[in-house]
What does this fold into?
Amino acid sequence: MNQEKTNKIGALKTIAECKNLELQTRNQGDLAFAEAICERIYEISIDNLKSEIECERFSINALKKDRPDLVKCINRKSIDLLVKKYPGYASLREVEIESLKATYSYEKILRLKNGKRTQATYTWRSIKNYGIVSKPRDTSGFTNLSEMGLKDYSFEAIVLKYPNAFSNSAVEQATFRFAGCAS
It folds into this structure.
């Protein structure tokens, strides 16, 4: 696709604009451009999600349409929405926000595994007792986040991004775990 078409897609701000251009493009026979416009519709739709419930519904529909790639984006949006609802969000440091994302990501995994909303009680207790990523063994949370394409929402990623906020031991463990993960 040429730069002009790419710029045109990037300039689309509403679903209505996208649908109008998609229809025109399909009528002109440029199916590749029309499909790219459809992808922009998905991006706008995900950006417009306002609640975790909306995210869940959109995920279900994306899976029905055989679009697991969209579920990853929807999961990120859902986690961002949860973090922004956290009490005192506006005054949190970036490392604290990243830690919340990691915890909510893990709770999302627990919810999928258990079929119901499950709090990451053990994770919160482990953070309180040991600190983030100081335990010597891999955790199922890191493995599951990696498999879901959310490795950058893991505690290990946070430690590597903000090494000065953590112990040398935590940095070593995070480096070791990340190096051992292929995805």
Observations:
- The CA atoms of residues 20 and 61 lie 23 Å apart.
